[in-house]
Amino acid sequence: MTIFVKNAWYVAAWSREIDDQLRRYTILNEHIVMFRKSDGSVAALEDRCPHRLLPLSKGKRIGDTVQCGYHGLTFDGTTGKCTRVPGQTNLPASAYVVSYRTEEKHGIVWIWMGDPDRADPARIFDMPEFTDPNWAVHLGDALHLESNYLNVAENLVDPAHISFVHPTTLGSAASENVPVHVKTDGEAIVAWRWIRDAEPVGFFKAFGGFTGNVDRWHYYYLYTPCTAVIDFGSIEVEKNCAEEDRNQGVRIFALHFITPVTETYTIDRWAHIRNSALEDPDAVERMDAAFRLAFAEDKEILEAVQAEENRPQKRRPIRIAIDKAPLVYRKRINDLLELERTEDLAGDLSPAFVYHD
């Protein structure tokens, strides 16, 4: 059974998904009703009336409150406190629903699922390219996967699978034996490699206009608990591009905002940011189609893996050299979970214990 990291910002929805209607979302196995309040902000409440447990999403909105559709108990959209119990004047203290902190940024609604006192908006994922006029930003689809979110996230810090899962879209056989580099000492786990002097892959044949061989790269950044950025691109071999000069080539960031729904169901909302075809009105539609094809290939693999994980295991799985980044990722998740399982009361050390570093 998966235990989810609570004290983190997760993507709840694209901003365009939320209007003034009551809509149910499931995040970390919690049902949440969300709607846009009169001031434009997003309300997020536990989607279960504490009286007879009817989902509030089956009730109705009254101003910035939600009225249960069973017996009319009404709850404040900001605090979750009960504001009315029809037929009585007293409001029991236990008559409330949990409210969740939300923030909206770059067309994305983020939700904090843990301790509200620890919800720091500065920790919400961001990139300078979101507001840079030299880059075009597009928020894509929501890919629904019958897979545990850890497997989905690991797939997004794994350049090695590209040659085999995406041989006609994002990869080719030319990269099969190219070493993968891994860095684990920063905020993000990073895995990357360059494929030098090779035929461009299908994606960059379509969008780069390359006719000869290219140097191409994949940089995978995975931020805990589950936001991934894939920086990939191509440039003419003759330019002998240095790693830090990738902006000189056709460069694309594929962003994956992973939302764990249940132990075996994940939503991957994906976006892309590009430095090319900025004036091409058809580029977004064609690029979306290419990404949908590639992500469907991932979906087939990940759901097949999950189906096998659901069956009894006869032996321990093996690990190979390319698993370095996923193993570090699992350790980071476990460390975060351990912090949430325990309470640190060692701030004021007892004089009976003297510590020497």
From TrEMBL:
Read off the Pfam families from this record. Answer: Rieske, VanA_C
**CDD domains attached to this UniProt entry:** RHO_alpha_C_DMO-like (cd08878)
Species per Swiss-Prot/TrEMBL record? Mesobacterium hydrothermale
Q: In the UniProt record, does the keyword Iron occur?
A: yes
Lipid biosynthesis keyword on record? no
Spell out the SUPFAM superfamilies in the cross-references.
Bet v1-like (SSF55961), ISP domain (SSF50022)
Name this protein carries in UniProt: Aromatic ring-hydroxylating dioxygenase subunit alpha
One GO molecular function term of this record is: dioxygenase activity
Which InterPro entries does UniProt cross-reference here? Cholesterol_7-desaturase, Rieske_2Fe-2S, Rieske_2Fe-2S_sf, VanA_C_cat
Q: Which UniProt keywords apply?
A: 2Fe-2S, Dioxygenase, Iron, Iron-sulfur, Metal-binding, Oxidoreductase
**Domain Rieske per the UniProt entry, residue ranges:** 9-111
